[in-house]
Amino acid sequence: MSTTPLAQFDNKLLDGLEFCSRVYALFETIRGAEDGPSRLRMRPSRLEKKLLEELLPICKYVQASYRPGRYISVRWVNGNQKFDAEILQSGAYVSRNSYPAMGYLEVTCTMHGNDYLIRELLETKGAAFGLEGIRLLKSGEIESIPVVDPNEDFIESYSKIVLEQIARKAEASYPKNTILIVQCTLNSVYMPDEWEKLIARVREGLPETSFQEVYLYDIAWQYQALL
């Protein structure tokens, strides 16, 4: 019977650090293949999508949270259930009721609407200008022109994208103690102070949710925040 590389994670309870090690090994296996960079950019199959949009974000959260007194095991489930992974937690912080012994992780990805176009341009032409200057023409060609972001409009526009996605997730029903992981593909180059301004805007507009935590991180510069 044939299996996919995802089978090593599916419904298997793994210590969080072992989970991360296996996910990174899978990432490097794909990246090291002749067509690996293209596959990671274009995500042609369920394997690449699950790796980049679920497994790696879970790793980011686990590594940000796993510490003495909070030991995390992960059971990722490859299905359509109302969460992406179950976590079991132990240690002094858990026994003192700072964290629940059992919880769930749900991952969502936020990005500019032109993200898929810029990835296609990078794949076919090797370069592109910023996200705001990309257009899909009637001919099917992708146009890329330079656009200047005045002031901090790019922060405001991206904060709206993040808040809209969190609001959509908040409308759904999730198990108790679910943590929302928000993977951010930012719409421009952000300096640390600009990331902090983005997080401040998101905090100000955050809708009421039932999530235990909302954890945001950026895939390029590895900024992170817990709301």
Explain how this protein is built:
- This protein has 227 residues and is an alpha+beta fold.
- The chain folds into two domains: 5-113 and 151-226, no CATH class; 115-144, no CATH class.
- Helices cover 40% and strands 21% of the residues.
- The protein is built from seven helices and nine strands; from the N terminus they run E-H-H-H-E-E-H-E-H-E-E-H-E-H-E-E.
- It has helices spanning 16-31, 36-42, 46-65, 92-95, 115-124, 153-171, 192-205; strands at residues 13-15, 71-76, 85-90, 102-111, 134-136, 142-144, 178-185, 213-218, 224-226.
- Helix 6 (153-171) crosses helix 7.
- It is globular and about 60 Å long.
Q: Could you say which structural class the secondary elements and strand pairing correspond to?
A: alpha+beta
How many structurally independent domains?
Answer: 2
Number of helices: 7
Give the percentage of residues in beta strands.
15-25%
Order of helices and strands: EHHHEEHEHEEHEHEE
Gap from first CA to last CA: 44 Å
Read across the widest sheet, the strand sequence of neighbours is 1-2-3-4-7-8-9
Shape: globular
Q: What share of the residues lie within helices? A: 25-40%
Please give the radius of gyration in angstroms.
19 Å
Average pLDDT: 94
User: In this structure, how is the largest beta sheet organized?
Assistant: 7 strands, mixed
Tell me the total number of β-strands: 9
